[in-house]
Amino acid sequence: MGGMNTTVQFVADIPCVWSYFGYTRLRRVLARFRAQGGRADVVFRPYQLDPDATVAGEPKMEVLRRAFGQDAASAVAAITAKAETEGLRLRHDKAVYSNTFEAHRIIAVAARQGLGEEMAERLFRAHHTDELNVADVDTLKGLAAETGVRWSDEGADELRAELDRVRRSGVRGVPVFQFPGRPPLTGAQSEQALQAALAAYLP
Questions:
Q1: Distance CA 80, CA 96 (A)
Q2: What is the distance between the alpha carbons of residues 103 and 199, in angstroms, rounded to a whole number?
Q3: Which domain holds residue 169?
Q4: Does the structure show a pLDDT above 70 at 2?
Q5: How many domains does the chain contain in total?
Q6: Within a domain: residue 14?
Q7: pLDDT grade, residue 200 (50/70/90)?
Q8: pLDDT single digits (tens) 158-177
Q9: Alpha helices of the chain — where are they, by DSSP H?
């Protein structure tokens, strides 16, 4: 008997470390689910933590210092150690905090080509590990090519409408995971919680 094809809506923003953790866990859970014959698509829904961030960006450490004050260094050390337990390597020293509009747009372009999951992973890694500016169009073109995504300039109007829809739906923080017919799961969910949510859709 074939299983149902389910959809996970994932609301996130690239510079958000909890979005990265949540997405990393979701991908691990999806890999197991698919190996067991489950079918699931991820629908990426965009959210901008800072719609006013510039394309040139600023050093992420400055942003963290504004957020955490004197505790910025210890906060960064704690999150970096936590990332290692997720199998992720975070670098902050030269990281660039910039506008994520174009990054969200290229995820949507990639999704239409069946490569949304790969493009999202590459963008998270570009920002958090490679210290790349994910607002820079040349950088994005390189990352798209590396991921096998054909570049397109389309989708800006649709993205603006979708950002607006997500905001109007009441999302005020990310990540958010939405499984069909269930209340949304907010924050960086554990693998166990994500696995339990998906288990209902196994064949």
A1: 16
A2: 31
A3: 5-198
A4: no
A5: 1
A6: yes
A7: confident
A8: 999 999 999 999 999 999 99
A9: 17-35, 60-68, 72-85, 101-112, 116-128, 137-147, 156-168, 191-199
Answer yes or no: is 48 within a domain.
yes
Separation of alpha carbons 98 and 133, rounded Å:
7
Handedness of CA 9, 117, 187, 19 (dihedral sign): negative
Q: CA dihedral defined by 99, 101, 105, 107, rounded to 10 degrees?
A: 50
How high is the pLDDT of residue 3?
Answer: 53
Q: How many whole angstroms separate alpha carbon 72 and alpha carbon 76? A: 6
Taken as a whole, the chain contains a residue count of 203
pLDDT at position 181: 87
> DSSP label at 8?
E
Give the per-residue pLDDT at 14: 98
Quick check: is 203 in a domain? no
Sign of CA dihedral 97, 103, 104, 107: negative
Q: How large is the average pLDDT for residues 15-40?
A: 95
* Cβ atoms 175, 45 nearer than 8 A: no
The strands making up 39-46's β-sheet, listed across from edge to edge, are 39-46, 5-12, 176-178, 185-186
Output the DSSP codes for 149-189.
Answer: PPP----HHHHHHHHHHHHHTT--SS-EEE-TTSPPEESS-
Q: Which residue has the tokens 């991921």?
A: 147
Task: Give the domain CATH number at 83.
Answer: 3.40.30.10
β-pairing verdict for 39-46 and 5-12: parallel
